[in-house]
Design brief:
By secondary structure, this protein is of the alpha/beta class. The chain contains eleven helices and twelve strands. It has two domains: 152 residues, Nucleotidyltransferase, domain 5 (2-Layer Sandwich), CATH 3.30.420.40; 164 residues, ATPase, nucleotide binding domain (Nucleotidyltransferase, domain 5, 2-Layer Sandwich), CATH 3.30.420.40. Helix 5 crosses helix 6, helix 5 runs antiparallel to helix 8 and helix 7 packs antiparallel against helix 8. The structure holds 5'-O-[(R)-(carboxyoxy)(hydroxy)phosphoryl]adenosine and zinc ion.
């Protein structure tokens, strides 16, 4: 089954064709990063307008490798969470194409789609199948959630109580005048800095169960910047490295704690922050030491893309979870603590 995935929840317009939920035949991403950079963050109105310009060229480029639309079986589109104006552009495009081409439509939750990325890959290097029992750490711009997955069952065992890890990266980058988006820049600058130069707080260290907290760390960086005054400029690589070390330490130590109470075969990591070099290395070492697998997508599949949307779309299509022309966008996602997702998929 060939699924065309469409993603427009934030500042990436993306389209992808995935075969049988696993094999990527095309993956096209048009980023608006440089357009929003001067504003220090995504401007929703500008984002929607650019999705409108990019959507059809991106879809056309994604379809090219399969020849023509007749080869596509299903269209999957992200309908939340995200910027409603941006989501509506993708949804309206998907609805229109589904009607014109006579295809079924599937609505996909963006966060759930991130969790599919580790099991999606190119035919030349087949992706792993989901391990039966594993921990899944979702670290994106707006969410930090640790799931215990057992077959079809998914339970939330930890989550951030305040900022998401990605949000902390973006806010600290902004404080240091490093622009938007911040994660990748901090990651790069960290290579030139000393991660032990400043001892920054690890939120909920040895308390709070498996929950995370990053707002105290963010405040500590702000205070450090104030204390350093003019000396801050030459200290930027050290601040970045010390901050990244604190985030990585928090994420890895809570995952390690979870591994002591839950016997699993693997740790799986997904979302934009999973692109972080320091985090990938530290999580790999943890899993190696515990003798379990560590599964993380290649960097381009950690950040927003439509292959993950098409991949989840395949699963939903197999279960008959189709949507109708009443499909709408929504800005935030509701997860119950037991890991159940209340996701409106339309009719
Ligand atoms: O998953 P994503 O692309 O979008 C959301 O669904 O939120 O995640 C975006 C987040 C941003 O906060 C960005 O700064 C962060 O991922 N990010 C990184 C890196 N690349 C992207 N954070 C740390 N290190 C990176 N290399
Ligand atoms: Zn995302």
């Amino acid at each position: 089954m060939l699924v065309l995935g469409i993603e427009s929840s934030c500042d990436e317009t993306a389209a992808s064709i995935v075969e049988d939920g696993r094999f990527i035949l095309s993956n096209v991403v048009s980023s608006q990063e440089t357009i929003h950079a001067p504003y220090g963050g995504v401007v929703p109105e500008i984002a929607s307008r650019h999705h409108l310009i990019s959507l059809m060229p991106v879809i056309r480029a994604a379809i090219e490798p399969v020849g023509d639309p007749s080869a596509i079986d299903v269209i999957a589109v992200t309908n939340g969470p995200g910027l409603v104006g941006s989501l509506l552009v993708g949804i309206q495009g998907a609805k229109t194409l589904a009607w014109v081409w006579g295809k079924k439509l599937v609505a996909v939750n963006h966060l759930e789609a991130h969790l599919r990325a580790p099991f999606t890959g190119y035919p030349a290097a087949p992706p792993p199948l989901p391990p039966r029992r594993h921990l899944s750490l979702l670290v994106s711009g707006g969410h930090t959630i640790l799931f215990l997955v057992d077959g079809d069952r998914r339970e939330i065992i930890g989550a951030t109580r305040d900022d998401a890890a990605g949000e902390a990266f973006d806010k600290v980058a902004k404080m240091l005048g490093l622009g938007y988006p911040g994660g990748r820049v901090i990651d790069q600058l960290s290579h030139q800095g000393d991660p032990h130069r400043y001892r920054l707080p690890r939120g909920l260290h040895k308390r709070g169960g498996l929950d995370f907290s990053f707002s105290g760390l963010k405040t500590a960086v702000l205070q450090l910047i104030g204390t350093l005054g003019d000396a801050v400029t030459e200290e930027i690589p050290n601040i970045c490295a010390s901050f990244q070390e604190a985030v990585v330490d928090s994420l890895v130590s809570k995952t390690a704690e979870a591994l002591t109470t839950h016997a699993v075969d693997a740790v799986v990591m997904a979302g934009g922050v999973a692109a972080n070099g320091g985090l990938r290395k530290a999580m790999e070492s943890l899993c190696h030491a515990r003798g379990i697998d560590f599964l993380v997508p290649p960097v381009p599949l950690c950040t927003d893309n439509a292959a993950m949307v098409a991949s989840l779309g395949y699963e939903l299509a197999c279960s008959g979870a189709f949507s109708g022309s009443d499909l709408n966008a929504f800005s935030s996602s509701l997860w119950s603590r037991r890991g159940e997702l209340r996701h409106p998929r339309g009719r």
